[in-house]
Amino acid sequence: MSLSHTLADIVGRRHVSTDPDVLAARSVDHTGRYRGRASMLVRPASTEQVAEVLRACRDAGAHVTVQGGRTSLVAGTVPEHDDVLLSTELLTELGEVDVIERRIVAGAGVTLAAVQRAAAAAGLLFGVDLAARDTATVGGMASTNAGGLRTVRYGNMGEQVLGLDVALPDGTVLRRHSRVRRDNTGYDLTSLFVGAEGTLGVITGLELRLHPTPAHRITAICGFADLDALVAAGRVFRDLDGIAALELIDGRATTLTAEHAGVPAPVDGAWLLLIELAAGTDPTALLADALDGLPLAGEPAVGVDAAAQQRLWRVREALADVLGVYGPPLKFDVSLPLSAITAFAGEAAALIRSHAAEAIPVLFGHVGEGNLHLNVLRCSAAAERDLYAAMMELIARLGGNVSSEHGVGTRKRDYLGMSRTAADIAAMRAVKQAFDPTGYLNPAVMFGRS
């Protein structure tokens, strides 16, 4: 029996596709810059079906690439080996919110927005927020240990995961859950799968931590003429009680959002800092005290009510609408020491000018943690190869990591050694070998084939 027939017996015929148009659409990354090839698409609807699919593919010698919301920015869901695409999109069961323990159980295919709505309806909130909230799935977010707009307060995705269901490469199922708040019994297997990018198993379900909703919130955007001054302000705010978000925005970015999205910057400045405080009591005085004496380019824009706050947040989130105005952007997702951010901004811009004179660099990100997103607009494929390698070398030289919150995927696997020692990589490969001896699961991700 062919593999397609075997998989159809497991998940149902309508959930297996070999249509070339369907596969082509599923084999391109979120940016549209990287493409691969696949042999079929399979959409299991339960953890047990995922496990059976994995077992069948392993026995048939087929490579498997796992796909969630396909919002990866490092080609993490792009197949390379005529792979079987295993989509988690049907794993959408969402449990009731446990208000007492502040938890919720969600299938891997549940979108971030759906979790946020469920939490809000129960008077709680989920600690991770992304601009791609309507399409990003919680399974994929856990697989990459995603960060986002609230990391400065709540941490990355791994800090929200209390338990997991995982289909392992041999077709068995691991269920790791605990009702106690502190469980140090044995290996912390939950943490092992968070950030593994689907190389050790397929996350099928998650138990997620929820948080109390602060009663008061205030948002502000401040302009700075000097990036060093903004970074210094970021150091002040990241340690402030009640900090909820701290976002750096390049003034070049707001020029684009004004022109192409009708969202101009509300303040002057070559660099903007979006600040949000949230607390049980009104944080307005706290914000005013922290801003006092900072070398601002002008008066800050402050949002006290929800509508005004939403308008200020639109300045940050409109970036997603304009990054593709000149075609697929070249993206660099990096983590840097705060002391290196100004040097990186200047040297990165010089690198881009030397490799792609017509390109436009746009820098933004979560300055509290030094997690930045450099997007190079109007960058040709011809210029990309040399520029990418040079940029990775710059990041490593400045003491940064080549990946901050989007993962390694396939795009950054050749640069893993810039952020991890040979011993680190050997240990990770040994873990991969233990779970997946034939290397068939997400074979292009993180290491590539040996």
TrEMBL record:
Cofactor (UniProt): FAD
Keyword list, A-Z: FAD, Flavoprotein, Oxidoreductase
MF terms in GO: FAD binding; oxidoreductase activity
Name under which the protein is recorded: FAD linked oxidase, C-terminal domain protein
Pfam families associated with the record: FAD-oxidase_C, FAD_binding_4
Gene3D superfamilies assigned to the protein according to its UniProt record, in alphabetical order: 3.30.465.10, 3.30.70.2190, 3.30.70.2740, Uridine Diphospho-n-acetylenolpyruvylglucosamine Reductase, domain 2, Vanillyl-alcohol Oxidase, Chain A, domain 4
GO BP: respiratory electron transport chain
Family (UniProt): Belongs to the FAD-binding oxidoreductase/transferase type 4 family.
Species whose genome carries this gene: Mycolicibacterium hassiacum (strain DSM 44199 / CIP 105218 / JCM 12690 / 3849) (Mycobacterium hassiacum)
InterPro entries recorded: FAD-bd_oxidored_4_C, FAD-bd_PCMH, FAD-bd_PCMH-like_sf, FAD-bd_PCMH_sub1, FAD-bd_PCMH_sub2, FAD-linked_Oxase-like_C, FAD-oxidored/transferase_4, Oxid_FAD_bind_N
